[in-house]
């Protein structure tokens, strides 16, 4: 259904479209689709979207669905208190039983059926344990319990409160329940990297599994329902139980279960390593390998079977049954016999609850057998299954390699050896989850695939910043080549085998495949079972080429979600760079308080900014305004002559020309909206600067896409126009340029604050007159003497870069974003208060895309309340972040200028940089007294 849906979405735009592996194809849209596809595609697309909408609705309103489902179940259970008869055999009615009803063979069959049902459920939960997620187990258990409850209420109502039939019904329900699809839906939800993705993934899972599960339930009901027409009463009752089992299972799967999954994961707000504790990082790959998508051949067979069974039911119930009724002979004498065997009302001897309690306590032999089996399997599952499963997995599919493949070159102590086996991304030996083998040979002979549970957190390697004489990790050393490594052809066969894959290859064998070009080095993360293992192998290969084999030992790489990096942030990854993150604040801005994260290695920066924030807060806070919001892209095009270039320039600046370009530009995105064009001419080269809003994204990719489409329209009007480059440095991006300073780029912001004279004296340790004088001499005249463009400030780039690194922005864009002019003047009745403002015309940032998708950077954005896209007004989060940047720059400017005016700059920097050279006891430094 997904393949057909995607094909239907792409078909109107495609010239030739082929659907694999079904080999459906059609040519140009003008010729139309084949008759079969023209009917199948809209139906499948509509059905998939219907289930997606249902899944999103249920996942978005879990409380309503759960309460409604429970209420409906209780109503069904209590309905027969007001309707139907009140006959309860053994309490208020004497129900004679014939000998045929209590045959020992029936008891044996029912006992065997119950035992098989218990064992079947046990094996289903045993398979779930191998997934390694306690959440899947808990959700599956909840699904089973509630399904049983729903089915029990249906049976009780169906039998008019007679509970004797429930013992026969429940085994059939347990045999028909299928946890695989329920757990597949749970894995869709558990594959979410954040709480926000849970609902979308549940809807996506419902779109994939819903149609298949619906068809399966329909086929099962029709097949089992055939038994209700057999004429054998016992078989009819059993088949009726089976049909109700399937319907109850389907009802819970479509309503209660997805709502419960959404609610459970929403309430599990604990996180670990930047993602929820229930997140399964490898499940995206697992779900792709599983056969969740329906087989079209099987689906066709089921649909044909369903139609045939519908015809059988229609013929038997609507045609054959009336005929059989009309031809039935009535025997008068049978009424006497039925009356003799009919139930007889008696006076109850005990309360109804006491009657049911006595029946529950009184157990027959077959019930004792079933209960004992259930208890034994439960004890085995809870207390012994974990160790047994780990032992089985460690001996499953062994791959023998020689000892040097696991042994580093130099001896390692016992504790280090254990750390090696825990952190090894490929070879996880028995010492991870079972007792350590008796000998090194035994350890080296067995390598189990990476489907075992994670290692004990206490044994995990810990990265410590600044640890002295840290022992290099054995994993990072150049691996020894095994003496009996497998051949290249065998390794290629294992890699390409869908049932084996890279997890059955050692690191040395993977490196052999990389060297032989069978695995591209840049695809290691994608081809390994875990991206982290691909990074580890690349580190080993790079370490062998470095001057020092242990050069990367202090660069961490473990416990990082590389799925967020792949294809978005970085290539050829060898680790990540931990940068200290400090916080400055509270920053009072526009009536709100912000705690500003600053990622920096410059001492005194956070302390200085914190002092500026305090001064602003004591002065009543800062105020800010957005002056402009437009990202730019400036392509260069070439005409045949300068005169023709001038004609194109005039057409672009006309109303009709601009509207034609704007229509083409705006059609490329929901958020991109062209605001204006700035056209410059140099000879026969034409430079066109597109100004566009980009929502909450920084927008370079968005505006580049719109620019390309606009240039295509421009070439249609001027065929002789030649596009030289989509970027002609007329933007200007990541380079100092006067056009950004004058015209603005990104967000243009102004921020101001008034600092009372008392705060200037007591917090900043200076005077207003001194600050104004230093600002004029340094920031204005000094920058003009240096020929600066946009550099009329003390250190705006310090704060811009620190916030950009912490919040996932492009650090290179701090070049243009640091354009700032800081102005100070005396104010107030006595002229002793300080009025300060900062104007920054080109702050280039965003809150979606790029580095903002990484969990640590998202955490810093969440500190400011601007993570992701704004739900109320597109672009508001990015504009708010720009205001915070400008206000933080103002705080930094205020504190640094005060330090310069008071002569404290050098002393405070030497103290915070821990330098003891020529440093005397100097009381009263600005940083000490400010704190």
Automatic annotation (TrEMBL):
Keyword Lipid metabolism belongs to the record: yes
Main location: endoplasmic reticulum
GO-annotated biological processes: cholesterol biosynthetic process; coenzyme A metabolic process; isoprenoid biosynthetic process
The enzyme's E.C. designation: 1.1.1.34
Places the protein is found: Endoplasmic reticulum membrane; Peroxisome membrane
InterPro entries xref list: HMG_CoA_Rdtase, HMG_CoA_Rdtase_cat_sf, HMG_CoA_Rdtase_CS, HMG_CoA_Rdtase_eu_arc, HMG_CoA_Rdtase_metazoan, HMG_CoA_Rdtase_N, HMG_CoA_Rdtase_NAD(P)-bd_sf, HMG_CoA_Rdtase_sub-bd_dom_sf
Record organism: Takifugu flavidus
Annotated SSD domain residues: 106-263
Record membrane topology: Multi-pass membrane protein
Ranges annotated as spanning the membrane: 63-82, 102-123, 135-158, 202-227, 247-265
Pathway this chain belongs to: Metabolic intermediate biosynthesis; (R)-mevalonate biosynthesis; (R)-mevalonate from acetyl-CoA: step 3/3
Name of the protein described by the UniProt record: 3-hydroxy-3-methylglutaryl coenzyme A reductase
NCBIfam families: 2A060605, HMG_CoA_R_NADP
Reaction it catalyzes: (R)-mevalonate + 2 NADP(+) + CoA = (3S)-3-hydroxy-3-methylglutaryl-CoA + 2 NADPH + 2 H(+)
Source domain of life: Eukaryota
Keywords: Cholesterol biosynthesis, Cholesterol metabolism, Endoplasmic reticulum, Glycoprotein, Lipid biosynthesis, Lipid metabolism, Membrane, NADP, Oxidoreductase, Peroxisome, Steroid biosynthesis, Steroid metabolism, Sterol biosynthesis, Sterol metabolism, Transmembrane, Transmembrane helix
Similarity comment: Belongs to the HMG-CoA reductase family.
Gene3D superfamilies in alphabetical order: 3-hydroxy-3-methylglutaryl-coenzyme A Reductase, Chain A, domain 2, HMGR, N-terminal domain, Hydroxymethylglutaryl-CoA reductase, class I/II, NAD/NADP-binding domain
Enzyme class: oxidoreductase
Pfam families cross-referenced by the UniProt entry: HMG-CoA_red (PF00368), Sterol-sensing (PF12349)
GO molecular function: hydroxymethylglutaryl-CoA reductase (NADPH) activity; NADP binding
UniProt entry tagged with the keyword Lipid biosynthesis: yes
Any single GO CC term annotated in Swiss-Prot or TrEMBL for this entry: endoplasmic reticulum membrane
